[in-house]
Specification:
Layout: H1 2-17, H2 26-34, E1 54-56, E2 66-74, E3 80-87, E4 91-98, E5 113-115, E6 128-134, E7 139-147, E8 150-158, E9 175-177, E10 189-197, E11 202-209, E12 212-218, E13 235-237, E14 244-255, E15 261-269, E16 274-281, E17 296-298, E18 308-316, E19 322-329, E20 335-342, E21 357-359, E22 370-377, E23 383-390, E24 396-403, E25 418-421, E26 428-435, E27 438-444, E28 452-457, H3 461-469
Antiparallel strand pairs: 1-28, 2-3, 3-4, 4-5, 6-7, 7-8, 8-9, 10-11, 11-12, 12-13, 14-15, 15-16, 16-17, 18-19, 19-20, 20-21, 22-23, 23-24, 24-25, 26-27, 27-28
């Protein structure tokens, strides 16, 4: 009786929209119910080939390697492209492509995947790709590469067919790297994200250099653009410890509608601990001192009252407001999904959440760690967050949540706003993307043995009804 009452309520709602809509069978009612928003956050069982909405790349990209997935994109053909690195005795940039159905695209590279099987730097084999983007000519991976005992910004480009583009980078092998330390001294420069300036096809690489926020610009051909940064080098860095401590780390970045570049991550405070931090540069790589009055800012308090807040993800709204996401460790050393929002000018947006920030209680009963690794914005402004949580046995789980525009938890998603699951090789969500009313989550297990992906339903209410009107639920008009 309860089910039919719900069905009749929905029929009344729909007939307000169109007096010609006719439902003439229980089958059609059930089809309608299957399209409703309560399906949001459920695994799409037809995706992939495991029968549970997941897939993973097996065998590994390099035989007997551990494949660490760090980034995914949905390309211009709606394929799912995964980037990361493969670890044997050495580490190699690696890439794979899946079809929209979740099946491996065996026409790509070497039966679906490929890797850079040589040192990108001058020596050594520690090449870890952390970022991925699509350009007009191919897919670019970015990360850190070895030059002796030191690490540098490094990039590589694959063609759309999955092979190294030897015309890219100016070294004859499809790669390039910055053979110096951007911040001077130190030994640890790495790219954590890549951005595309679409009009010029220039590539912005953002990351860290010797504990400072840093960025560089490469031309479409993969060579440094020495006009970027204002110092004739093609790169720049923030020579300031943002929160007054000893080290900063840039974890992610994004572009505002004006073309200005936002770098975000975390900064060690003068009294210890870490805080969410962000910096803005102009499109030409110059510190934008109109942002937060000095060009950079940080969250002056920790979100849960502990000492360590780690920002790992960023999204920029259509109004250029900036959402930062990651984890906040409370006074009991328990990590929580945590978000903060800043206005376009760098001030904290106190209309979001609780005076600018929000966090979730432990998602999985009995667990102690929840970390956001990636976020994405729906067209309606809702925020999808993906990451890792653990259960009461400390087993890692793929974990998701959806927030409303105001920072409150969206209770229509998953199980009252959150979702978690564990399948073989699908344990740690590192990256997410939105496509075709669905969420693609990607990652691997905690040891990084396989590239893994999953698909969740994510049909907005308005879109669900549009699909019904189009006849996709088996209704007749």
């Amino acid at each position: 009786m309860k089910k039919y009452f719900l069905a009749f309520f929905l029929i009344a709602h729909i007939t307000l929209k169109s007096s010609t809509l006719i439902i003439d069978s229980t089958t059609q009612i059930n089809a309608l119910l299957s399209q409703l928003p309560n399906q949001n956050g459920k695994l799409q069982q037809t995706f992939g080939n495991k029968g549970n909405g997941t897939n993973f790349l097996s065998p590994q990209i390099i035989p007997d390697s551990r494949d660490h997935l760090t980034a995914i994109i949905i390309d211009s053909e709606n394929n799912i492209v995964c980037g990361g690195y493969s670890h044997t005795t050495s580490m190699y940039f690696s890439i794979a492509r899946f079809l929209p159905s979740g099946l491996l695209d065996t026409s790509f590279g070497n039966s679906g995947s490929n890797y850079v099987n040589f040192p990108i730097g001058t020596s050594g084999q520690t090449n870890e790709a952390n970022a991925l983007l699509e350009t007009e000519s191919g897919y670019v991976l970015g990360g850190k590469v070895t030059n002796g005992p030191n690490y540098h910004f490094g990039i590589a480009q694959y063609t759309k067919k999955g092979f190294l583009d030897t015309s890219f980078g100016g070294r004859g092998n499809g790669t390039n790297f910055i053979n110096t330390f951007i911040a001077g001294g130190g030994n640890n420069d790495l790219i954590t994200n890549l951005l595309l300036q679409t009009q010029t096809q220039n590539i912005i690489a953002t990351g860290s250099s010797n504990g400072y926020f840093a960025l560089a610009q490469f031309l479409p051909n993969g060579q440094l653009n020495t006009t970027f940064g204002g110092n004739g080098t093609g790169y720049n860095y923030l020579n300031v410890r943002i929160a007054g401590g000893s080290t900063d780390f840039c974890a992610t970045s994004g572009l505002q509608s004006t073309g200005k570049i936002i770098l975000a991550g975390y900064s060690n405070g003068a009294g210890g601990g870490y805080k969410f931090a962000l910096v803005r540069y102009t499109s030409t790589g110059i510190l934008d001192t109109s942002f937060a009055s000095i060009g950079y800012t940080f969250l002056p308090f920790t979100i849960t009252g502990g000492t360590i807040d780690i920002c790992k993800a960023l999204a920029i709204q259509s109004d250029d407001k900036i959402i930062l996401a990651g984890s906040s460790r409370d006074s009991n050393a328990i990590k929580h999904f945590a978000l903060a929002r800043f206005n376009a000018n760098g001030t904290l947006d106190t209309s979001f959440g609780n005076n600018g920030t929000t966090y979730l209680p432990i998602i999985i009963p009995g667990g102690i760690d929840n970390e956001i690794h990636a976020i994405a914005l729906q067209a309606d402004g809702k925020i999808i967050a993906g990451g890792i949580g653990d259960d009461n046995l400390a087993n890692p789980c793929f974990t998701f949540a959806r927030f409303n525009q105001d920072g409150s938890l969206d209770l229509t998603f998953g199980n009252n706003g959150t979702l978690y699951f564990t399948y073989t090789n699908i344990l740690n969500c590192k990256s997410i993307a939105l496509t075709n009313n669905s969420i693609i989550g990607a990652g691997n297990d905690t040891t990084g043995d396989f590239f893994g992906i999953c698909q969740l339903n994510n049909i907005p209410s308005s879109q669900a009804f549009k699909q019904i009107y189009a006849g996709k639920a088996g209704l007749v008009a």
